[in-house]
Design brief:
Radius of gyration: 12 Å
Strand content: 5-15%
Largest sheet: 2 strands, antiparallel
Helix content: 40-55%
Strand order of the largest sheet: 1-2
Structural class: mainly alpha
Oligomer: single chain
Distance between the termini: 17 Å
Shape: globular
Length: about 90
């Protein structure tokens, strides 16, 4: 299910980061999440690739930076060593 508010919040936070006004706690959380994403077999560049599968789970198709900047978002692999949750 697409959560338009999460998408808007993620891209808004990404823009805040670019101009240097993003909350530092949110940025630290995002960096920790992205560190896991960078090791994930579902990652293709900047995207969690829905064409890839790991342990019978597909990527979600999200752009990873904005996704990682929303506190309420979860990774589709949240129960594995690659995943993260709220």
């Amino acid at each position: 299910m697409i959560k338009f508010n999460d998408i808007l919040e993620g891209w808004s936070n990404a823009a805040r980061d670019v101009v240097g006004v993003l909350d530092q706690k949110k940025k630290a959380l995002s960096l920790a999440r992205l560190e896991k994403c960078n090791k994930c077999p579902l990652q293709s560049g900047l995207i969690c690739d829905p064409r890839k599968t790991y342990m019978d789970m597909n990527g979600c198709g999200c752009v990873l930076v904005p996704k990682s900047l929303v506190n309420s978002n979860e990774c589709p692999l949240r129960e594995t060593k690659y995943g993260w949750s709220k």
